[in-house]
């Protein structure tokens, strides 16, 4: 697996704008490739509604720029936005790996607008949302095992910069916050 966090992500709007333009071109190239990667976009959302905390996760998976899978769910009022971001990435990778295997794809690209969550997946020390890295690290194994030509890339994407997949994941996460929580996710260990 490859982690891609641009070193300029915190150096101001000009650097972020340039990175966003480069990433737009890269995604356009992927979508026009005859053997495109399977691309997943994930997001988490937190809001207070009627005095209650609502936390949602969402992701969308695309091939050739067209959605092939999506998910939107609540994870309970005791979770944090960080739990949501971490779980969204882990669930997105899990589903993307299944779709990539079924389509004989050789590359997976996962995009999240939360660089701290991405970095935490490689942090072996105790931290919030500890369960998500376990899911995340195991998710690509069936896709990668026995296939040295296959690759998984996890990268930061600037949020709210007009990336269609990222905007879709954001809407799904917001929608997920407003439904009853999935029973298995209505509590958190952090």
From TrEMBL:
Protein name: ribonuclease H
One GO molecular-function entry: RNA-DNA hybrid ribonuclease activity
Keyword Nuclease recorded: yes
CDD domains for the chain: Rnase_HI_RT_non_LTR
UniProt entry tagged with the keyword Repeat: no
Entry's family note: Belongs to the RNase H family.
Domain named RNase H type-1: residues: 34-178
Enzyme class, UniProt record, top EC level: hydrolase
Native source organism of the sequence: Rhizoctonia solani AG-3 Rhs1AP
Residues annotated as transmembrane: none
GO terms for biological process, alphabetical: DNA replication, removal of RNA primer
E.C. number: 3.1.26.4
Catalytic activity, reaction form: Endonucleolytic cleavage to 5'-phosphomonoester
Keyword field: Endonuclease, Hydrolase, Metal-binding, Nuclease
